[in-house]
Amino acid sequence: MKLVPGPALPFSREHLHPGNRVCCAISGGADSVALLLALHAANGQSRQSLGVVLSAVHVHHKLRGAEADADAEFVADLCARLEVSLHKVSVDVPGHIERTGETLEEAARNLRYGAFHDLMISGQTDAILTAHTLDDQAETVLMKLLRGAWTDGLSAIHPVVTLINPHSRTQPNRIIRPLLTVRREQIESYLREESQLWREDSSNADIQHTRNRIRHELMPILRTYNPHVDQALGNVAELAREEESRWQSEIARLLPQIILPGKPVRGGGRAVGTAPGEASLAMEIERLRAFDPALRRRVLRAASRQLGARLSFEETSRILALCGLQSHPTVTTRIGATVQLSQYLRAERSIRELRLFREIPQKC
Fold first, then answer.
1. CATH number at residue 101
2. Are residues 302 and 216 both part of a single domain?
3. Angle, nearest 10°, between helix axes 313-322 and 293-306?
4. What is the rounded distance in angstroms from the CA atom of residue 23 to the CA atom of residue 40?
5. Neighbours of 80 (CB within 10 A)
6. Are residues 48 and 154 in the same domain?
7. In the chain, which residues have pLDDT < 70?
8. Are 91 and 59 in contact (CB under 8 A)?
9. Which phi and psi (to 5°) does residue 339 adopt?
């Protein structure tokens, strides 16, 4: 990743090109304030100028009352001083939680990124820049690990996420994280050198949230074992990202060769019809048996995703046991046996095949 050298805050220019319209997401916290300042400084009149069209976006989540209002006012004043155009967006996180049952963190993130997506879809910017740091990356890897994530989960925060742009086939919309290799302590040091204030979000100290517990309790302990644990966890994310990319290419090539539609019928051929509101696919058990354990798991997960479901480690193990490819205390290998899984998914064994069925929830 290419970094900007010198006394200024180092950030990646890898996905920033002259003429791009980029919008910096700014909450008022140290990380996003530093990113906006660094982008503004690098977008000056020198020969090394970024040459981008820079704007900013602030999302008010209708949380923290007067404190959040003060954050919005602080951001507006900063953007006015820098002469950076500011998009102000308000979302109703409490109302969204009541409707969906999502956690506070999930709801805030989903609505925030929904606002970012709307801004790009409207054609007002080509990319949203967020100020995720190496500390954020390390915390996210640990969160994913504690929740039992697969390799794709351990890839954590990606440096760039490409989204479909309905207005252009050649210029996709993107979420870009230019500070993903920068430590939080570098951020605050840069702001102090610039005599730039920032806002502190009081909810960041609330250890009822998993991320805050990891940030304030677990990470300090881990740093006593390895002072460079943040970088080590960041390396895990990069390795996982590269491994997953390699596997996705292989699975995309292999899966069409082994997925079978519907059920075999007497006299040859296959019946592709399924029950109303149901999707299905099949694969030969002997084909699975020929694969190594890592490939078997990935094939099963990819097949389930074709049906709109995601398998957990335990569910994948139960399907493998149904095929006689490993043991499980609650699963039998008898012909006709079924395993009921989550997300309306079930697996069934025939003489030669594994069949996956997913009931498609009907919209009211």
1. 3.40.50.620
2. no
3. 100
4. 11
5. 10
6. yes
7. 1-7, 45-47, 165-171, 262-277, 361-364
8. yes
9. -130, 120
Q: Are 56 and 24 in contact (CB under 8 A)?
A: yes
Q: Give the model's pLDDT for residue 3.
A: 41
Backbone angles phi, psi at 251, to 5 degrees: -65, -40
Beta-bridge mates of residue 3: 12
Confidence at residue 154, expressed as pLDDT on a 0 to 100 scale: 95
Kindly give the interhelix angle for 30-42 and 184-193, rounded to the nearest 10 degrees.
60
User: Do 336 and 231 lie in a common domain?
Assistant: no
β-bridge partners, 270: 264
Examine the domain organization and report whether 96 and 189 are in the same domain.
yes
Sign (positive/negative) of CA torsion 302, 304, 306, 309? Answer: negative
pTM of the model: 0.87
Residues 6+ apart with CB under 8 A from 42: 4, 8, 11, 13, 48, 49, 50
CA atoms of 311 and 318, how far apart (whole Å) = 10
Residue 2 lies in a domain: no
Tally of domains within the chain: 2
For the chain, where are the alpha helices, taking DSSP H only? Answer: 30-42, 65-82, 93-100, 104-121, 134-146, 151-154, 184-193, 210-213, 219-225, 229-258, 285-289, 293-306, 313-322
Encoding tokens for residue 127?
């990319």
Is 4 contained in some domain?
Answer: no
What would the pLDDT profile of 254-297 be if each residue is shown by its tens digit?
999 999 876 666 655 556 655 666 788 999 999 999 999 999 99
Q: Are residues 46 and 131 in the same domain?
A: yes
Residue 206: per-residue pLDDT: 83
Task: Give the pairing type, strands 53-60 and 160-163.
Answer: unpaired
Q: Residues 172, 178, 184, CA angle at the centre, nearest 5°?
A: 150
Are 185 and 279 part of one and the same domain?
no
Please give, one letter per residue, the 3-state secondary structure of 276-337: CCEEEEEEEHHHHHCCCHHHHHHHHHHHHHHCCCCCCHHHHHHHHHHCCCCCCCCCCCCCCC
Q: 146 and 231 in one domain?
A: yes
- The confidence score (pLDDT) of residue 201 equals 86
Domain of residue 44 covers: 21-245
What pLDDT is stored for residue 6 in this prediction?
37
